[in-house]
Design a protein that fits this description.
6 helices; mainly alpha; about 170 residues
Length: about 170
């Protein structure tokens, strides 16, 4: 999101869009990272990876609040449609992941990576699939760090792409 939102903004509306994309990144990447960091320091959850499923349910409202606030401000400020659609799609992905998290742990990193790739393919075409190995490497890293199983990574990847691409296309 840190790169994708400004990239889509630039593509949609040049320098103005780049600014909107950077603004969106504050609420979708920087804000959630700070929330997770503060929660870790206050020992609200174990670590920055928020490995325990129960801890994710505690962390999710803060992250979701940041993303929702950014989404509302984008729409209120008449941001480029592509940037607003991106953030709307990410809200939907987060909500689906939260619903899954009540029952099972799923990889948010893998979901966000596959969401980003699916939106890049929607905007720039199938040649963006050359970035698919990056999504696989992110998933592999989650397994290697022992944060997730292969199944949790796979479900995250499928969920991210299946939710974000159609919604982005619909809203955008």
């Amino acid at each position: 999101m840190l790169i994708l939102a400004p990239l889509l903004g630039w593509h949609a509306d040049g320098w103005t869009g780049l600014g909107w994309g950077a603004f969106a990144a504050l609420f979708t990447a920087v804000g959630p990272t700070l929330i997770l960091h503060v929660g870790e320091r206050r020992r609200l959850w174990g670590d920055r990876h928020v490995r325990r499923r129960q801890d994710r349910i505690v962390a999710a409202p803060g992250v979701l609040a940041s993303v929702l606030a950014g989404t509302a401000l984008l729409y209120a400020g008449d941001a480029p449609v592509a940037v607003a659609a991106l953030v709307t799609a990410m809200v939907a992905v987060l909500l689906v992941l939260l619903a899954i998290t009540f029952f099972w742990k799923v990889s948010v990193h893998s979901a966000v990576a596959s969401s980003a790739l699916s939106i890049l393919v929607t905007v720039f075409g199938p040649w963006m699939l050359v970035l698919a190995p990056v999504v696989v490497l992110i998933g592999w890293s989650r397994v290697r760090l022992r944060c997730h199983t292969v199944g949790q990574v796979a479900v995250g990847m499928v969920t991210g792409a299946a939710v974000s691409a159609p919604l982005f296309a619909l809203v955008g």
